[in-house]
């Protein structure tokens, strides 16, 4: 794996603020990684010092082997799950410069 890409993925994950989440796909897209699986591999190999708990699967759920610890950490930051699913519309991180998904120009 490319060291530059590896570090870019780490930097993006590190920038996800408390109280928000991102998906593996979000991180992959921002970093220019070829797949969300690569993001997961980087976290598994070198993510112990990152806010790994803020990264979820595309459906808003944690990986099964992380579910309890991850949801507990998210809850401590104010991110609440419905069962084991986090509402991505409510808690998804919007990096600087991204517009809100709401309609424009109403007022």
TrEMBL record:
One of its GO terms (biological process) is DNA repair. Gene3D superfamilies: Winged helix-like DNA-binding domain superfamily/Winged helix DNA-binding domain (1.10.10.10). Residues 6-79 form the Methylated-DNA-[protein]-cysteine S-methyltransferase DNA binding domain. It comes from the Bacteria. Keywords: DNA damage, Methyltransferase, Transferase. GO terms for molecular function: methyltransferase activity. CDD domains: ATase. This is DNA methyltransferase.
């Amino acid at each position: 794996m490319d060291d530059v890409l590896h570090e870019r993925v780490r930097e993006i994950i590190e920038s996800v603020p408390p109280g928000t989440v991102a998906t593996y796909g979000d991180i992959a897209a921002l970093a220019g990684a070829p797949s969300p699986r690569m993001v997961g591999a980087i976290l598994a190999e070198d993510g112990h010092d990152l806010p790994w708990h803020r990264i979820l699967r595309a459906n808003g759920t944690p990986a099964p082997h992380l579910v309890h610890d991850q949801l507990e950490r998210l809850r401590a930051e104010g991110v609440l799950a419905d069962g084991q699913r986090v509402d991505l519309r409510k808690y998804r991180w919007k990096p600087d410069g991204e517009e809100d998904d709401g309609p424009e120009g109403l007022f």
